[in-house]
Amino acid sequence: MDMDTGHQPSLSPEEERSTSNRETAEVITVTEPEGPEEESATRKEPSGTPFRESLRRLRKDKRAMASLFVIILFIILPLVGPPIYQHIGGPYNSDTYGVIGPEVYHNPTHQELSRQDEGLSAQYWLGTDAVGRDMFARMMQGMLISLVVAIMVEIVTVVLGLTVGILAGYFGGWIDQLLARFTDIIFAFPGLLFAILLTGIFGSYADNFFGKVPLIGGNGQARLLLVSLALATVGWPLMARFARGQTLQLKQQQFVEAARTAGTSHFLIIIRHILPNLLSIILVASTLDISNTIVGEASLSYLGLGVQQPSSSIGLMISGASSQLASYPWEVLLPIIVLTLIVLAFSFLGDGLRDAFDPRTKD
């Protein structure tokens, strides 16, 4: 009787080669992709650009996104709101002017002495002030003035600060020494105090020599330009220091050394290599500086050194209503709340931009 010994029967050389070929074919069939679709599926997706990654981090910051919404509202409302608001409402029989329409009583300079210190109503959405002017119309004009001042100040600050800072950091020498001495003089005074000094000395000269400048409707004043120049004077040295410090680091990088070795001119190196790497830092610094600019303009107007009557400003509204705090507190609280929201929005957005564009930031 044949017994099973547990051993496999021996194969001939031809059968062994056939079995080996079948196993190799099975391995190839398993490991090889069947077509281009599987190749694309197994290929790793390329990572996004640093700018897109920064935007993704910014979008995840809920506080920064809420602040951005407030800033957009702050920009759109004073630009679009006044012409719309002056067409809302019907005729009104004024004791002083007779029958007038919303284009008159919703004008920020119109005084309705029989409607002083009124609360919120369908005609006056935020009430009236001590001389019967529409507070909502004046609020929008004050926001527009703050926006114009912030834009003018940041243009001067960025252009002058970048120019001086990059030149000082890249070339050094007397330009660097001049910047250092000038910034020492500026930083020896508190910024707001120095702006008060400039507006206090040159305010009357601006009114006398330049008169009224039609920047904000028909009531814009030369003081608006003076306030902007005063705030820019105390703001651009700090921007120049930022640009100088970053330029000192960038000019030692290998890509700048390679461009210099290749014979690229200094101007092209600054335009192509230095300036693009400063944009994110300047964006963050400018956003944070806007809040200081708005507070500075409001402070100067509150002290009577900024925008003058009959124009409106948030600081001017706070100053005019401060005597009414006990009787009509909303006339002071409303512009204070608006100013606080604007300043906090720019501050939170600046913090979000700083975290988003900082390559060391982790999700």
Count of DSSP strands: 2
Rg on CA atoms, Å: 33 Å
Shape descriptor: elongated
Please name the fourth-level CATH homologous superfamily of the domain at 141-357.
MetI-like
Uncertain segments are: 1-9, 24-46, 215-220
Helix content: 55-70%
Calculate the mean pLDDT score and round it.
80
The CATH architecture of the domain at 141-357 is Orthogonal Bundle
Order of helices and strands: HHHHEEHHHHHHHHH
The main β sheet shows up as: 2 strands, antiparallel
Number of helices: 13
Specify the CATH class of the domain at 141-357. Mainly Alpha
Distance between the termini: 77 Å
> What structural class should be given to the helix and strand makeup?
mainly alpha
Order of strands across the biggest sheet? 1-2
Strand portion, in percent? under 5%
Fill in the CATH topology of the domain at 141-357. MetI-like fold
